[in-house]
Structures are given as structure tokens and as C-alpha cells.
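thought: fold this chain, then report.
action: predict
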Amino acid sequence: MAEKRKVRSREERLSYLRQHGQVPVLIIGGGINGISTFRELALQGIAAVLVEKGDWCQAASGALSRMIHGGLRYLETGEFGLVKESVTERDRLLKNAPHYVFPLRTTVPVDNWGGGMVNAARRFFRFSDKPTRRGALLIKTGLSLYDVYTRQNGTMPRHEVRGEAATRQRWPGFADWVKYSATYYDAWIAAPERLGFELVDDAEQANPDALALNYCRVIAADGDRVTLQDTLSEERFTLQPHVVVNASGAWIDQLNHTLAPGEAGRRLIGGTKGSHLIIDHPDLFAALAGEMVYFENQEGRVCIMFPWFGKVLLGSTDIRVDDPDTVVCEEEEKAYMLESLSFVFPDVSVSDEQIVYTFCGVRPLPASEAKVNGQISRNHSLVLLQPDATHDFPTLCLVGGKWTTFRRFGEEAADRVLHLLGEKRRVSTTAMPIGGGRGLPLSQDRAAWFERLASTSGLPLSRIRQLVQRYGTRAEPMLSDMIATDDRALTHHPDYSVNEIRYLIQHEQVQQLDDLLIRRTSMAICGELSFSLINEIAQLFAGTLHWSEAFTRQQADETCDRLARFHGLSSLNPPCSGGKSTCC
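observation:
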């Protein structure tokens, strides 16, 4: 079994902040780009501090379409460099995170052969922002170039284009307008929030002088000092950073009002909201047969749907927003996505009861005057705000970016910070495994490894497979530390055990119920939550974190309310006899 990992308690983390007033780098924002920058710096021996006002990957980094992709459509806007970089990073993730990132066969339904060429040229040369439908020839041209990039870095199969007969044979449920289909490969990610946490944990394990703290926000900055507040205890801390990294995504401009008031009028972000649905529809799930359908809806906007742990993920919208704190998936967005679904599968009807989860986030896109949101670049950039009369430290802002390229963006940001510190890079992460992907045997060698784990732990082989699917090789210390002593199943979710949940609470910086329900496990997004399950897990939190009965009741109630407001799970929040909604 694997050796136990050293895990700091929250009190030890807070004690670190009390004792370390001066730090070389303070990174603000625990989304995937801030986490990547933290990891890169920690691996170079830098005692960086990363803080996040909520939980890791709680906002946009937990609301992605679950795709790790090369950005096929960016070819049309001439962003060839971004596509090449994205394909390269996609293939690296397939190798470095094989426990969570997997190939995804993707089909594009097409209604004509030669259409869209003129409009594509107009968009390429920025003569038009209008979305239009693409023909099979245009899509084949793009996929041929996509293949070139793919073959340079990986072993994904080449694309293929089917005629009407072959398309209809494979996809009998497609609408009559579909005359052709093109198939290629990208990738999907099973647990993005978990991968984000594993990057944090890897960084701290590699460099004990680096610190990451969730539920800690910036409340003031003055001169050479930044004041932080633990949002759980309300204790305040003052740090003197040499460099500040603003990786707060959609909140970059808001945070700059505090960090660099002299730059308050400078707009860096023009975010758009993307909403998604998780649908429990066995017929649609069966029709997809493991593939993603990447399609243009009636107005020519790209949408996706693909199998998601026995259900179907459908997305997404692209709506400009000004306040990232209040976004939810609105009823109009649900209707829009379901209408787009019906455009491709006209015989599929989805009821409200079949929508088991909704989620949305604000993409931190660069400020743009583009008339169509889809034309805003998904590329990333660094903006350095120099010290001035209001603050003594430089502030490096991470603008834009996408999940697929987080490693490269973090690398670029870290190199810029190292230059500001007068330091040099020591370690490359290009081929560095992440978290539970480290030491994961190849597919053909896993059967023997599973047998060894089952023999050593005394657990059934089926349970070993389940744990490895969830945690990769991080299942090994879990087995040795907790599970083998008592693998008693939860009463209201037998696929999880009591000690498995306790282990996550104790070892993965879990502070609130929804940290575990939404981000450390897939219970919420897979539509597996129930009124009784939340109560059962709340009691495990109480016993592990020493919550009082009243606080436990409050946590359960607030969790149910957030799940209802932000994820459409109103069934978890029924009124009790006294008229107040409660989970307990």
C-alpha cells in the first residue's frame, strides 16, 4: 500500500498565515488557472500562497462542458496557434491524467456538402460576425488540419465523413435535415474539480513551504500589504507579497479595484455565462452509444451532448453577464437548450423531471467589442499592472484561457513571476503525472494490479475497481488509511462507504457539505442526491469536524437551499410543518 501523505489541518494552515507576514507570491483565485500557476511555482521551490474565497474550482472551473478539446471551431477565426496549443495540451492530459481524461468519439451532423465556405471566409477575415451553418466540405477541411496537429502529438484516429446512408444507419434518430456526418476524436474529463484539488495537493506535497487555503478572501490592500480574512472564522491576516497574481477569473476587474485602485477604470474581462443540463433520458443515452454529438442549432450556434455516467450532458448557452455572483441557469436557457436538442433529435422529448441537475459559470473571456459572443477569443493573456502610489507590488492578471490549456497558461504565468523574482525554472510539468494519474498502470496491466489491491485490502475486486475509477492511484492511501478497517456502506447511497466519506473530509480540505457533494464526489452532478442522503452525510461531517447539532442543521439547510437555487434541485428543499425549508 502507498505511504500516508502529510496533510495539514486547517488550523495549521491558518497558523502558517499568522507566522509568515512576508511571502514571495500571493495568488488570488482558486480556479484552474490560479491552481496551475500555484503548482508551477511550488515545483520551482517558491513559497507561494494561494487563496480562494470559496472552494477549489467552485466557479467557472467547475462549470465547464466537461470537454478537453483542441478547439476545432477556432480554426475558422484563424486562431491556429490556439488550436495547436490546445491539441498538444489535450494529448498531454490524456497521458498525465489518465484516471480522469479519456478519448471522446465525436460526431458532427451536417445538412449540406458545400455550404458555408463564403461566410467562413468572411468570418476568417473579420468581415462578418454572423454565425452560419457549415457544410461537410468545410468541416472536412477543418478536420484535416485538426488531424495534422493531432498526429504531431498523439495517436488519435483520423476523422471520417459519412454519406447519408451510413449516417442514417448509425444515427436513425437524427432529424431529416441531416445528410452527412463527420466523426473525429477529442477528449472529456470525468472529474475536473477533483483534478483541480489534486493539482493543489501535488504542489503542497512537493513543496511544504507552499500553502493553499480555500475559504479565504481578500478584503483590503494598502501599500505593500494585503489583508485576508478567513471566511469561516472571520480571522484576519496581513501579508506582504513581493508579487500578486490576480487569477480570479470573472472577478478580475472587481479585485483590481482593491489591489490596484489606480487601474480601476481599466476593463480586462467581458465574461459570458454558459449553462448546462444533466438529463436522465435512457433512450437518448442509448442513442448516443458513447459518442458526443457536436452540432449547430437553428441559429448556427455550436451545442454539445454526450453520455455522462448513465445520463446525458447537454450544453450550452453563451450570454454576456455583468455580475458573476448571481448567475443561475434560467428557464429560458433550459428551453433554448432543449429546443436545440429537438433540432437534432426531433423525436426526443424531455420532461422537467428528467432534468436532474443544472449548472453554469461565467467564462473569463477578455473584454471585447465583438457583436457575437462566439467570436470572442478563447486564448489567454497576461496583463502586468505595475506598482504605483496606491500599491507597492506588481499585480499579474491572468485573462481568458480555457480548461484544456491550464497547464500551459500556468507555466507562462509562473515564468513571468519567476522573472519578477529573479528566479529560474527548475522543473518542467509537460510530462508530469497529476494526482491519481501518477503510477496508474496501463489498461492492459490493471487487472493484476486490481487483484493485488483486493488481496492486500481484503475488499472485493468490484469495490477496488470502483475506487480506482473515482480516485486513480490515490485510492491506495485511502485503502491503507481508512477503508479496509470498515467499508460499511452509506445507508442512502450504498456505492459510497462511511469511511470513504470521512477520508475525503479529513484529507481533501473539505469545509462545507457542498464541497463534498458537488466537487469531491460526483453525487450532485450525476443526479444522485436525496433528502435523506444529505442528512446522513451531514452527520458524518458533524462527527468528523466536531460540528454542533445546531450548526449541522444550519449547514444541511443552507446546502439544500444552494442546490435548489443554483442547480435546480428544488425537490431537496421542501417546506417543513413550520413553513421554513429545511433538510433536517
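thought: worth noting. The first strand starts at residue 22 and ends at 28.
final: C-alpha cells above.
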